[in-house]
Amino acid sequence: MSSKDVILGRIRSALGPGLEAPAIPRNYRRDSDKPDLDLLVERLVDYKAVVHRVTGGGIPAAILEILGAGTVVVPPGLPTEWLPPEVEAVVDDGLEADRIGAADGVVTGAAVAIAETGTIVLDASPDQGRRIITLLPDLHICVLRPEQVVASVPEAVARLDPRRPLTWISGPSATSDIELNRVEGVHGPRNLHVILVAD
Amino acid sequence: MTTFLGMPARAPRGVGHLRGDEPFPVAAREALANAQLRRNLQHATTTIRGKSGRVIAELPDWQELRAAGSALKAYTMANLPLLLEQLEEKVTAAGGVVHWAADANEANRIVTDLVRQTGERRVIKVKSMATQEIGLNEALEAAGIAPVETDLAELIVQLGDDKPSHILVPAIHRNRSEIREIFLRAMPGVDPSLTDNPPELAGAARKYLRETFLSTRVAVSGANFAVAETGTLAVVESEGNGRMCLTLPETLITVMGIEKLVPAWSDLEVFLQLLPRASTGERMNPYTSMWHGVTPGDGPQSFHLVLLDNGRSAVLADEVGRQALHCIRCSACLNVCPVYERTGGHAYGSVYPGPIGAVLSPQLTGVADNASLPYASSLCGACFDACPVQIDIPSILVHLRNQAPHPRTEAAVMAAAAYMMDRPKLYASAQRAAKLARIAGRRGRGLPPPLNGWSASRDLPAPPKETFRDWWRGR
Amino acid sequence: MRIALFATCLADTMFPAAAKATVLLLERLGHEVVFPAEQTCCGQMHINTGYQKDALPLVERYARTFDPYEVIVAPSGSCVGSVRHQHAMVAGRNARLAARATSVASRTFELSELLIDVLGVEDVGAYFPHRVTYHPTCHSLRVLRVGDKPLRLLRHVRGLDLVELPAAEQCCGFGGTFSVKNADTSTAMLADKMRHVLDTGADVCTAGDASCLMHIGGGLSRLRTGVRTVHLAEILASTEGRAA
Ligand code: SF4
User: Fold this and answer.
1) CA-CA distance, A156 to A119, in Å (whole number)?
2) What residues are in contact with ligand 1 under a 6 Å CB criterion?
3) Are residues B231 and B374 in the same domain?
4) C-alpha distances in angstroms, C56 versus A91, B212, C53, C87, C101?
5) Same structural domain for residues B384 and B458?
6) Domain end (from B286, B310, B334)
7) Which of B31, B115, B285, B422 is the most buried (most CB within 10 A)?
8) Structural domain boundaries of chain C?
9) What is the CATH number of domain A36-197?
10) Helices (H), ranges, B280-407
11) A94 touches chain B (CB under 8 A)
């Protein structure tokens, strides 16, 4: 008898015959409110992300302002017109960890953002890339379009594909381990900048 | 009793950390006498209660989310065999390998063998209650493999040669200046000018662990959620050490209790709202990682999932107690518990402290092995109100007390009291003879053992001249 | 209205003033109070200490004794909590007893519930010229969920200066046999509760449970603080002519 059979047998005998599963009351908020971009900004800032609101053409200038001249890692599908000419872009084609870690920052798009919680979700699409590239640099610049913003967690879950690697990010790396207060800056990027593009 | 295969079984003795060396009241004494510890705990729990209360108040549908979370967990338990098999199928299809561990010994053996096969002598770990429960670190060390805890609080505990005292913040009993001292004493290569400024302390951990993250090829994690419908796993964390462990190594081994399942992907919409607000008091924790088996070219290329029973099936067999398996390990019940706030976590003797520990540990081990824990509560009910999945901890405590072995004198006194109280005439004459008053002695004097603990710090009221019954009759 | 009094074993034996006050208050409000003599104890101590089998006859006795009455009152949030949330469970498979226990429980009220929800009165015409702080006992607060009912009653008492208790919702550390089995932890909880009571500058600490008051009062007396503990019923029963 395998351990699987043992465990499943134990569970079946523990449950006994015909334990009824309850109906799930889903009367919490699930439908779409119109996402409030100002709320998103407020919540991002509250958890120490820096937000830049720009119009479509303003992305390179914002990146330049954040970074100055420097090297950034970019995923293979990042729109090239986002980057200012002063910045040297290293495209991730399977870069070694030290190369990634040595860059001044990383620029990505995003899959979804949640206004109510100030969260950005990456799903490893071509404009977001492998998980490692947003992990090792100390600065993450994330470009967000308004149509990617949803109001609440249920709407974000509905938009995401559970078969992709997902990284939910709410502010820069932080810990609550010292006296249960939130302190920014442990292992992940210590600086998170969000460029929110207006229509 | 002979157990045969398929009977729910308790967590075995001699392995893991579910049983303490001393009964709770004895173990609590040390913490109660430590004024610094009590200040640290009070400060930390007061802070978190305030934070959590504020972000919960922001949600108009918190109670509806709690009800949904509770029902989802009950639904999961009722369908557990089916959902576990579904999870196995989905994880396997996504390139993972699923292992089943009936108890701590089997889980430790599986993980140790998997690490051995990689040839690696060191593993990085992201905080996981399940691996602490089974004593995985000790098992790995015995096999010559060094486990490195990467969570800041775990690191503080590991460097301080200490024991965890909280589910979420294992070093909650340490304040910033104690943490600084531990780092200065035990962290190789630490900057001697380190201050107790929290960002600096966090920075020291970042520097210390970076090289280890980059050079270790195997990671061990737990999981907060596993989605049966899709095979997706989730780890909820703050610091980014979780992301490091789940992204950088070649091999990832995840150890997960069989109760951590959720039926469908969309069910995470409930738990991802409940967990961060109840646990760290944040609208959302800094990082949540979700993965689906193996993604070619991104993250670990070898993924193993170990499904752990270790007494859980026995918990499931108890109709009242089984809701303890609904726990999502947020630690809100610890943070609001007046007993935990004063004794800290070590007194509970198990990796699961506080109210949830008082109902979970005795059920995993059998009540006789943790007989004092169901009594480590004044039944004030604060835990029930705080629990994001509405676990009725006070009722489980009362239920377990009814199963606990009772001291013989106590049982005799209780039986005698019940006998008398079921006979009003006898009861009234006992009252009139002021028996209670005589036991109590004169006002202010002590009670005999075992009641002397009570009268050590409280006066007893003067016995009244007449009972209510007498007064009523005399009207 | 005809109201049956469940005095509770603790008030009957050790704190008759709370039960007497309940009688006098309800009579003053024009109601008839009866005291079924067959009553003893609700069995809560047995249940909460792990002796449900011993508690069973007490649960049966409670149901039998009070079944004939439409409305039952007890000056204790804790005992009413036990009647309402534990008696049917103790009855277990005895379906007839469980049904009877549930029915009697639905007619059993804690004093502030009775006054506000059943009798619809907030101003009971009391007079109590003291500085008072109110401790909302855990079972009134979290088992019965009486909310601010006791405070609403106290706010109408003439002469009474009500001061808010800091960290009021925290347990005083009594917990029945908890205070014996875990005496040290209980004492630590009591110490904080007493500190908060003393911080208010009140000269009276009140609550709806004689048991918690016995605990808090025992501590305050040991420290010779001069602060008295007085049951809510006693405050509500006192009038200009008859002070508690
Ligand atoms: S029992 Fe409830 S409150 Fe306690 S840790 Fe588990 S989920 Fe959180």
Assistant:
1) 10
2) B 278, 327-333, 356, 386-389, 391
3) no
4) 75, 61, 5, 8, 11
5) no
6) B310
7) B285
8) 2-118, 131-237
9) 3.40.50.10420
10) 312-316, 332-336, 338-343, 354-365, 382-386, 393-401
11) yes
> How far apart (Å, rounded) are the C-alpha atoms in residues A67 and A71?
9
CA distance B337 to B122: 38
What does the DSSP 8-state code read for residue A85? T
pLDDT tens by residue, C65-97: 999 999 999 999 999 999 999 999 999 989 999
Beta bridge partners of B235: B289
Q: Is C33 exposed, middle or buried (0-12, 13-18, 19+ CB in 10 A)?
A: middle
Count Cβ atoms below 10 Å from residue B474 Cβ, excluding itself.
Answer: 7
Question: CA B138 from chain center: how many Å?
Answer: 20
Q: C131-237: which CATH architecture? A: 3-Layer(aba) Sandwich (3.40)
Computed on alpha carbons and rounded to an integer, the radius of gyration of chain C in Å comes to 17
Six-digit token string for B182: 């531990």
Chain C, window 64-123: residues with a beta carbon less than 8 angstroms from a chain B beta carbon:
85-86, 89
> Where in the sequence is the domain holding B196, given as residue range(s)?
59-310
R_g over Cα of chain A = 21
Structure token pair of residue A81 = 């017109």
Burial B375-393 (b: 16+ CB within 10 A, else e): bbbbbbbbbbebbbbbbbb
pTM of the predicted protein model: 0.95
pLDDT in tens, C54-66: 999 999 999 999 9
Q: Whose structure tokens read 């009152």? A: C73
Q: Which residues touch C158 (CB under 8 Å, ≥6 apart)? A: C126, C127, C128, C129
C-alpha span between A120 and A117 (Å, rounded): 9
- Domain's final residue, options B403, B429, B455: B403
- Between the CA of C79 and the centroid of ligand 1 the distance, in Å, is 27
- Chains interfacing with C (3 or more CB pairs < 8 Å): B
The whole-number average pLDDT for the span C8-33 is 96
Report how many helices (DSSP H) and strands (DSSP E) chain A contains, helices first: 5, 12
- Give the CA distances from residue A130 to residues A95, B125, B358, C171, in Å, rounded to whole numbers and listed in that order: 10, 21, 43, 51
Query: In which residue are the tokens 């999870």 written?
Result: B87
Atom of ligand 1 nearest to the CA of B329: 5
Q: Whose CA is nearest to atom 6 of ligand 1?
A: B327
Min Cα distance A191 → chain B (Å) is 12
pLDDT in tens, A107-138: 999 999 999 999 999 999 999 999 999 999 99
| A 178-197 near B (Cβ less than 8 A) | 178-189
* Domain spans in chain A, listed from the N-terminal domain onward: 36-197
Token digits of residue B231: 């095979």
Other residues' Cβ atoms within 10 Å of the Cβ of residue C201: 11
Q: Express each pLDDT in B369-408 by its tens digit.
A: 999 999 999 999 999 999 999 999 999 999 999 999 999 9
Residue B48 lies in a domain: no
**Which pLDDT does position A19 carry in this prediction?**
79
**Secondary structure of residue B450 in the 3-state scheme:** coil
Residue B8 lies in a domain: no
| CB-CB under 8 Å, B151 with A177 | yes
Peptide bond into B450 cis (omega under 30): yes
CA distance B224 to B112: 22
Residue environment code for A28-38, b if the CB has 16+ CB neighbours within 10 A, otherwise e: bbbeeeebebe
The predicted pLDDT at position B429 comes to 84
Q: What is the Å distance from ligand 1's center to B387 Cα?
A: 5
Q: What residue of C is the nearest CA neighbor of B455?
A: C218
3-state DSSP call for residue A186? coil
